[in-house]
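not sure who needs this but someone in the group chat was asking about Aldehyde dehydrogenase domain-containing protein from Dreissena polymorpha so here u go. i didnt clean anything up, its just raw.
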Amino acid sequence: MNYLDCVPGKGHALLEQWNPLGLVGVITAFNFPVAVYGWNSAIAMVCGNCLLW
């Protein structure tokens, strides 16, 4: 998806826009800390957020 997508529908249009939230904190469990951080940080970085682990 692009930064701003328009999904046409019957009688309406849906606009999807990703906005950065700023600082995002990622809290991980002790058993898979790097895997959970990787999943959450990838999404946060694509949206343009800063991360705190």
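also The chain has a mean pLDDT of 78. if thats useful
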